[in-house]
Design goal:
The complex is a heterodimer. Chain A folds into 2 domains: 59 residues, no CATH class; 173 residues, MetI-like (MetI-like fold, Orthogonal Bundle). Chain A is built from 11 helices and no strands. In chain A, helix 2 crosses helix 11 and helix 6 crosses helix 8. Chain A starts with a helix and ends with a helix. Chain B is mainly α. Chain B contains 14 helices and no strands. In chain B, helix 3 packs across helix 14, helix 5 packs antiparallel against helix 6 and helix 9 packs antiparallel against helix 12. The longest helix of chain B is centred in the N-terminal third of the chain and has 34 residues. The two termini of chain B are 25 Å apart. The chains are: A mainly alpha, B mainly alpha. At the A-B interface, helix 1, helix 2, helix 3, helix 4 and helix 5 of A face helix 2, helix 3, helix 5, helix 6 and helix 7 of B.
């Protein structure tokens, strides 16, 4: 409706539209240029990455082992993030069901409480947990990282799942139970199909938040096997090797695939 | 709902009330490994004992006095505030027309524009900072542009200064401003715009008198999110500002990682928390006061 009316007026492109097109293109350039610079400079022949690059080579894509600890940290981070994703989604799904199936007192308060790590800075989580683990609980590095990542990933998962379940008609649940379904059957046949898209989006968010995290990992890392973002960060304190650009290009490619396949799950439930 | 529950069987009712317990694991997790550690930070920041006593002892405000008496701290706080604010505002100005285009485009173009915004958002923060470092290099496109325009005669050294940090911040928060703004624009009541245009309003005046005022909450939300993200980011200021141009977060990092000064680190963490909480509360209060005006009709 609105689009039709605005489009009929688009017949003559006004000054305002021309300005908007220019401004939008400028915005698009800002969004794309740094990514492009990383990808393009990964093909340069010089020992230090530069943009625009000189020459052309694919060598750096075969030289990931030139940066010490890079491959190990990639595997370590994948393992960590997959575990954190599974735990975040499970915890978020449980909490969302608990908050939705029945009208419980203080629901808004509980929800705000669970969302707190979304609002408060993650660097403080890292610092706080580091002190906590030193003073009260000597957990091993991996457990510490899982807990730290879980705290900051879980609210994103909850934020994806909760709105989807809120639209759920509780009568359906009550009806299925009255008709003799046990809770598991009712969950599988009624709740799960409704929650499914939001669970996918929750898993994506949880994975991305954990896989990208530096602020918490920097405090809780095992210095012998730091997670990938920590390795990438530490490397950037020297002149950048093209190997880092090659790894980064691979990560960007991963994002491209993610956005192409699941883009709609990443925006449908923003706040 | 209540009536449904009354008519359903007792067994169902028992299970439903039991279902509320499902939220307990999450609450427990946050209480033990989030709230408790945060309280420990607060405790340590006023501890009068030796710094090695990690659960704190005694009480003193000395660490706060010392922190605020140091001109470096004040300079870093002020710098964090203005850099975060200026970056948020510029990001907003660039994001606004972009978000309007997202809302007004056909399905294909919309998808392209949204994907372009999602791409950096889903890519690692360090990788994004690498990209900014490449763009800002001596022979990078920005220096080339400035030289071509004759604005500078020598390549500018952007890195480790305010310009690099502001540019990095803008790039970092753009998606977080664009997406809520585009959603806000898509929610606008099309009938208002139609009525205005039927009554002869020009596009510019529609934008000024209808679109913009109705978007104030989305714009404010975007700005607040951008400001807070800038304020609490570590990777961007760490790689683009470095040790020579510290923000509150990187100052915290320096105290913790380089100096192992845990009490000062805790003081900075509390200051950071207070700034974020005050900002969010002020915004929420303002929004609540305006709620009547912006309530969906």
């Amino acid at each position: 409706m609105r689009q039709d009316s605005s489009r009929s007026r688009l017949a003559d492109v006004s000054f305002g539209d021309a300005f908007r097109y220019a401004a939008t293109s400028f915005g698009a350039v800002i969004l794309v240029l740094p990514m492009l610079a990383v990808i393009v400079s990964s093909f340069g022949e010089t020992a230090y990455a530069r943009f625009p690059p000189q020459g052309f080579t694919l060598h750096w894509y075969t030289a990931f082992d030139e940066v010490p600890g890079l491959i190990a940290s990639l595997i370590y981070s994948l393992k960590l993030s997959l575990i954190v994703t599974a735990m975040s989604v499970a915890l978020a799904l449980l909490s969302a069901i608990g908050l939705t199936l029945r009208v419980i007192p203080g629901r808004a308060l509980i929800t705000s409480f669970l969302m707190l790590p979304l609002v408060l800075p993650s660097i403080v989580v890292g610092l706080a947990l580091m002190l906590f683990f030193s003073a009260f609980w000597t957990a091993d590095y991996f457990t510490g990282l899982v807990i730290g990542h879980l705290i900051i990933s879980f609210p994103y998962a909850l934020r994806s799942i909760l709105p989807a379940l809120e639209t759920f008609d509780r009568n359906l649940w009550a009806a299925s139970r009255t008709l003799g379904a046990n809770p598991w059957q009712a969950f599988r046949t009624i709740l799960a199909p409704i929650a499914m898209p939001s669970v996918l989006s929750a898993a994506l968010f949880a994975f991305l938040i954990s896989f990208d995290n530096y602020n918490v990992s920097a405090f809780l890392q095992d210095p012998l096997t730091p997670p990938l973002p920590v390795v990438l960060y530490n490397q950037a304190e020297q002149a950048l090797s093209p190997v880092l650009m090659a790894v980064s290009s691979a990560l960007i490619l991963f994002s491209v695939v993610l956005v192409a396949l699941f883009g709609k799950y990443l925006i449908s439930t923003g706040k | 709902m209540a009536s449904t529950l009354k008519t359903s069987t007792r067994r169902t009712r028992t299970f439903l009330s039991g279902s509320a317990a499902l939220v307990l694991p999450a609450i427990l997790l946050l209480l033990v490994t989030y709230i408790l550690p945060l309280l420990q930070v607060l405790r340590l920041s006023v501890s009068s004992a030796d710094p090695s006593v990690l659960d704190g002892a005694g009480f003193t405000l000395r660490h706060y006095f010392e922190f605020f008496a140091d001109p470096t701290s004040l300079r870093v706080i002020w710098r964090s505030l203005w850099i975060s604010f200026v970056s948020a505002l510029i990001a907003l100005v660039i994001a606004y027309p972009y978000a309007i285009s997202v809302a007004k485009s056909g399905p294909v173009m919309r998808r392209v524009l949204i994907s372009l915004a999602l791409l950096p958002m889903t890519t690692s923060g360090v990788v994004r900072a690498y990209g900014v470092i490449m763009v800002l290099g001596r022979e990078g496109p920005l220096n080339k542009l400035l030289m071509a325009l004759g604005l500078v005669s020598q390549p500018v050294q952007f890195l480790y200064g305010p310009a690099a940090l502001i540019i990095g911040n803008i790039y970092f928060v753009m998606p977080f401003v664009i997406l809520p703004l585009a959603a806000g624009i898509a929610r606008l009541d099309g009938r208002l715009l139609e009525a205005a245009s039927t009554l002869g309003a020009t596009k510019v005046s529609i934008n000024r008198t209808i679109t913009l005022p109705l978007l104030v909450p989305s714009i404010a939300a975007g700005t607040i999110v951008a400001f807070t993200l800038n304020m609490t980011a570590f990777v961007t200021p760490g790689l683009l500002g470095g040790q020579g141009y510290l923000m509150l977060t990187t100052l915290l990092g320096q105290q913790m990682f380089n100096l192992a000064n845990w009490i000062t680190g805790s003081v900075i963490a509390v200051v950071l928390l207070v700034i974020v909480i005050v900002t969010m509360t002020a915004y929420q209060t303002w929004l609540d006061r305006k709620a009547g005006f912006y309530a969906p009709r």
